[in-house]
Every structure is written in C-alpha cells, then in structure tokens.
Amino acid sequence: MTRSSTASLLLVPATILIVAGVLVPFAYLFRISFNEFRPALFMVEALTLANYTKILTEPYWMMVMANTLSTSLASTLVCMLLAFPIGLMLARSRSRFKSLLVMIIVIPLFIGSAVRASGWVGLLGYGGIADTLAKVIGADGSLGLMFTQFAVIIGTASVVIPYIALSVQAGIEGVPPDLESAAQSLGATPSKAFIQTVLPLAAPSILSGTVLVFILCVNSFATPVLLGGPRFKMMGPAIYDQIAGKSNWPFGAALCFVLVCMTLATLSLAFVARRLFFRRSF
Amino acid sequence: MTTRLSRRQALALLGSAAGTSMLPKSSLAASGKVTVGTWGGAFQDVLTSSVSPILAKDQIEIVFDIAMQGERKTKLLAEKRLRTGSLDIVLLADNDMYEMNLAGVLAPLPADRIPQLEKLFPEFRNSYSVPQISSGLVIIYRSDRVAAAPKSYADLWTSKFAGKLGIADTLFVQNIIVASQVAAAGGPIDYEAGKKKLLELKASGVKIYPGVDQLAQGMKSGEVTTTIMWRARAAQWKDAGIPVDNVGATEGILPVTFEIGIPANAPNLSRSIAFIKSALSPEAQVAFAKQFGYAPTVSDSGISQEMLDKLGFTDQERAHYFKPDIKQIAELTPAWSDWWQTVFLA
C-alpha cells in the first residue's frame, strides 16, 4: 500500500463522522425549511418558499439580520483594535515568560461564554461598576448599558480576543526578521518598515483569524441572550426561539440556512480579498 | 469454563431471589429514575428539598430536565410520535398545559391510583393534569419607593409609572391579557385593543426583563419599582429582603395554577404517579408555600391559616377573578408570541 493511499484511509473515519453527523442532518434540516408550520399540527409536509420569503421581506427579520451583521462587524473591529497590540507584543517578545503570556491569553477560552457574560452583567447592569464609576464623575442616573447592542458588542469581543491575538502573533512571527531589518537599512523608518513589509506578509494569517472571529460572532448565542435581553435579537438566539421555544422547526431551519449563507458570503468575500490583495503570499 | 457455587453462595442467591419476589409489585416497578421537565432556579430548589426526599424512600431519584415552558412544550410535541418519550412528568402553567392537552400529548389521569386528587379544590380540577400550586396575577410595587400604591392596572399606564414599570418577557400571554383588561375598562374583552394598549406602555418606556429572576433583580436594585407578577413572588421577594407589597388590581385578578402532567408516552407510569403523590403531599405543599410563596391546591395541605391568608386571595378578591376563555387563549398564543416578538419587542 502506498503512503498516499494509507493517508487517504486515515481520512475515512473523519469523513464518515462529518457525513453522518453534519451533512445528513444538514440535508434533513434543509428539507424541513420548505415545510409549513401550523401551530396545532406542528409541522406539515410541503414544498414552499414562504419561510425564506418571510425572512427576506419582513422588516423584523431584516432587522435581526442587520443586528447580526452590524454587531459581528463591530465586535470583530473592537476585537482587532484590542487584540492586535497583544499579538504584536507576543510576537516581538523575547521574554522567558512568553509561554506564560500565551497561556494567559488562552485561559479565558476555558471559561464558558455564559459565565463571562454574567461577569459583564455585574459590570454593565443597573447600579453595577460602570454606573458607579459614572456617578463618581458626575453622571446622573444609570448609563443604561445593559440589554443594548453596545453590551453585546463588548461582551462578544471579549470572548473572541484570544483568537485574533494568536493569529496576529502567528502571522508576525512567520515573517523573517531580516526583511524588516533590510527595509530599515534601505532607509525606511521602523513604522514604515513594519507597515510596508511585515504587515502585508502577515496579513493572510491575520485575515484568517479575523474571518474566524467574525464567524464566531455571527453565530454567538449566550452573549446576545444574556447581554442583549429580550429586545435585541440576533440570528443565533432567534433560531433557538423558533425551534425550541415556538416549535416552528420549518422557519427555524430556514433561518439556519440564511445564517449559513451569511457566513459563506463572508468567507467568499475574505477569499476574494485574499486573492486580490495578498496574491504574492500564495 | 465452569463456575462453581459454594453452598453458602447458592443459599444467598436463592434467598435474595425469594426476597425480591416478596417485594410489592408497585415498589419494583417504581424504583429508579423519574425524569421531570420543569423550570430551574427556585422551582427546582423546592422540588429538590421537598419532593426528592419523599421519593427517595421508594428508591426513586428525580432527574431534572430544565427548560423554559416553550422548550418543554416543544419537546413534548417533538416526541409525540415516539413510542417512549424522555419525560415521565412535565410541569407547566395552566394555559400551556391546556394547549398540550389539545395537542394530544398528555395521558389521561389515572385518578383511581392517585387518591389525593379527591382533596383538590374543586375549581382546580380537570381531566388531564394535576394542579400542584396556585397563585394569581397582582401588581407588586416597592413599598419604599412608590408613594401612592396603584390600585388598578390602568394606573400603571399613567405617567407616574413611566420608566419605572418592569414586565417579564416570559409572561407575554399574561401581559397581553392585562393590557386587554385595561383596554376593556370593564366592558367585553378585546385582545386586539389590548395589544394597542400594550404599545402605549412600550412608548412610555416599560422595561422588559428576560425572566422573573432578572425582574426580581431589577426590583431589588430599584431600576424598576412596579411590576405585574404572581402574588407568590411578592412573598418570595419580601423574604429575600426586597421591600415590596402587592395589590390585586380592580380590573380583576388572573388566577394561575402550575400543573403536573403525564406525557402520553411517559416511560414509567408508576414513577409518574409516585411523583404526583409526593408533590401533593403536605410536606411538598408546605415547602412550596414557605419557600416559594405559592398557595396549595389541596384541602389537606397542612398550611396554617395565617399563611393561607398571606399567599391566597380573600373572598372579595376571588369574586373579582378574571377568567378568560382558556381555549381561546390557547388558540391565540402562537400568534401572540409572534406579535410580541416582532412588534412589541422590536
């Protein structure tokens, strides 16, 4: 048996698992999304586009999609602003405690997002730390941060920071230090050398991390539920509401596929951006 | 390979076989786990402290399947086609239980095997579920922050309560009914008018909390000073140190029972029955009254008159019970749920 055929055989268990555990249920869910929902009968076999039409035409569902996209974009941006310096510091660090620093970045991932959201409740809730600080500097009454999009953006960004920090670190570490030195020896200032030499070469890795984080934000559940409250709705909690709360599986399934399409569209955009702007690194 | 049994081992095996055969049939059938679909939090705590020890005597252990009522209903519906479901018992509020009975997912009550059903107050009895605890919808307010106590739901629509009224998302059905009572102003009930009335409340800045526990937190912190809630919660919150008082609105009190149902495909009927018997026992009824503020549903609860007066309703209040058409409510609930989410919360 050749080495390549042995490697192919090793892929069989994972392939079976993915087909049986993901693709088959996915296909079933896709079929369900064309069914009808009648409250007394639960789900009725049909072939209708009504669920998709509802999502794409009713203002409420357009708003839910807009909430999901805007919150995810804002969270990713906030995350990038906060995580980039951390990743850069890690990449450039020659400290013997570097491994410890990496561990400190990773440790929050061991804590569930629901637990972390509870921490934000204490911080952003009525009479919480944010309100207390605001009072100290003379604010009148509560800031009203809880159950807002702002709370969800901050909460979500805090969950995903490690992913971007680590991808920035990996990207920058992958660039040979000699290139930056060469740029500087040719007259570039340190910042110009970094921006024009290191950053473009590290960009594909950073972009991958950014896409991963955006996808995590788009699909987030616990944070929007706990920090967004009943009035701020994103796709993840909306799907759960439809399937588990309202028993409306067809509509919930259609929402799932719209969310999948949103995610795939983002991936495609990232792929195109990579091809257009970072072709040299392939 | 052969296995040799000693004389003593053989006698021990025979003895235990004989002993097992002499055990009452019911105890053999009942021992094991009973899966209960219920609310978490304080409700689960009271079940754990009161019903679990009683069932433990029969070697029955409660396995809690925690979810909000919507999720529990979905589970019952989703498992309807299965020969054996995952729940032995489901706990739901009266309107939800009625809806589940209409959906045909509940077993008829084996009344002949539950003698305590005869002790149920007549107004609570039905053929498909066992009312376990009761209360009614009232106005709860912070006695230290609300100068003039509201008397009616209509008072909550005045500017005096703007921005200081909180309601629970989970009680959307009850919130629509209350708004309809206000809109009706004593006349015939019109739920469409109630929805419009509710939108006025939204415009005046009503705060909406995901659930009752978050609302309790809002009342405690003073973010809101007034709410529409079960009277039981007033007693519970007061015990937790929140200075609240409550009043039955002049428009009429919406009574509620929280009920126990047996799914039609429950895995083990004997354990389901054992759970119901334990939940109706004086120990459990007293625990739910003391720890959770709910009034009993049976006449032999053993709860003191003083506590009954505190948690229950006076004759005058009972005379003003507002009892909507439960069938109509069950039919309207799915549409209300959509309206609540896409219009009121949007």
UniProtKB/TrEMBL annotation, chain A:
Residues 65-270 form the ABC transmembrane type-1 domain. It is found in: Cell membrane. The chain crosses the membrane at residues 7-30, 60-88, 100-123, 143-166, 206-229, 249-273. Pfam families: BPD_transp_1 (PF00528). GO terms for biological process: transmembrane transport. Keywords: Cell membrane, Membrane, Transmembrane, Transmembrane helix, Transport. It comes from the Bacteria. One of its GO terms (cellular component) is plasma membrane. Coiled coil: none annotated. It is a multi-pass membrane protein. Belongs to the binding-protein-dependent transport system permease family. CysTW subfamily. This is Putative spermidine/putrescine transport system permease protein. It comes from Chelatococcus asaccharovorans.
From TrEMBL, chain B:
InterPro entries: SBP (IPR006059), TAT_signal (IPR006311). GO terms for biological process: thiamine transport. The keyword Membrane does not apply. Keywords: Periplasm, Signal. It holds the Pfam family SBP_bac_8. It comes from the Bacteria. GO terms for molecular function: thiamine binding; thiamine pyrophosphate binding. Coiled coil: none annotated. GO terms for cellular component: outer membrane-bounded periplasmic space. This is Putative spermidine/putrescine transport system substrate-binding protein. It comes from Chelatococcus asaccharovorans.
